[in-house]
Amino acid sequence: MLFSKSCEYALRATMYLAQMESNEKVGIKVIARDLNIPADYLNKVLQTLVQQQLVSSAKGRNGGFYLTKNELNKPLINIVHAIDGKEVFYRCGLGIKNCSSKKPCPLHNDIKAYRDNIKIALSNNSIASSRSQIDSGEVFLSK
Amino acid sequence: MLFSKSCEYALRATMYLAQMESNEKVGIKVIARDLNIPADYLNKVLQTLVQQQLVSSAKGRNGGFYLTKNELNKPLINIVHAIDGKEVFYRCGLGIKNCSSKKPCPLHNDIKAYRDNIKIALSNNSIASSRSQIDSGEVFLSK
DNA sequence: GTGCTTATATGATCTATGTCATGTTTTTTT
DNA sequence: AAAAAAACATGACATAGATCATATAAGCAC
Ligand code: FES
Ligand code: FES
Predict the structure, then answer these.
(1) How confident is the model at residue A62, as a pLDDT?
(2) Hey, what domains does chain B have and what are their CATH numbers?
(3) Angle at CA A39, nearest 5°, toward A61 and A77?
(4) Could you identify the residue whose CA is nearest to the C1' atom of nucleotide C7?
């Protein structure tokens, strides 16, 4: 689709962590089970996010992944940038080099609207913002 | 992005053929050169379209690919369906099974609105419709 | 009809992505 | 100090997608 599978997993996992009490740590197995994601793979993805300081982790017994207040307030788009890079939002939908309004492809306007809309949504919404919607059962992170 | 590379190639190639005079045949090498696409690969993609009766072809000397009047009037979305299937427009952007407004993911609304938009654009526009825009230099099929 | 030019068919190879598996390090518990 | 539990690190494997290559069949020109 728009994002790589790794990125989809990353987004779902961080939104999942956002639901927890502040500083409550969740083990990888629990996250993977709840989200229906292969644990080892998700582990790898989360490590990347830890390195990028978008997610925190604690080793040892009772350790796990969690989000700090600071991390909760970062926009969701940071996750996308960390995993898929910034180019996703600027690639031509027909694969032509240098997507731009100067030399648009026939689908440019429609594609750009789509891309921009998602980009804006992810930029304006913090990781924490999904909390209430998920909590109230309006939206879901897993089937 | 949204479509597979094969599908991107397919869309560009058919729009390219739409520019030709009716029933003018173009060889695969010419198309590939003009669009900067590996010839053998594009060849394979076009064969699929020929099988699906979205593009016509003629063998032998002075043979090549071309579009009939009938084919020119078909909507562009047929190309997408032939190569990527119908699911592209119904897959959840976060990879959750069964994208639906009943059980939406946090990005569903942002994704669906504009995904539908692209789908509608491709459904309402015939293959031939790109002609004038391309011809007048408003839009481009290659860098 | 012979030879050339073209699409067609099929499969091999390469590449990126996703998945699995193993071992190491850190921290807590006892 | 020892043991256990967890993240961390690394690499092997699998799969799908994209690319390349070869051989076959069909049509045109002469
Ligand atoms: S040029 Fe194709 S999407 Fe912008
Ligand atoms: S449920 Fe995720 S895009 Fe529809």
Answers:
(1) 87
(2) 5-84+126-136 (1.10.10.10)
(3) 100
(4) B59
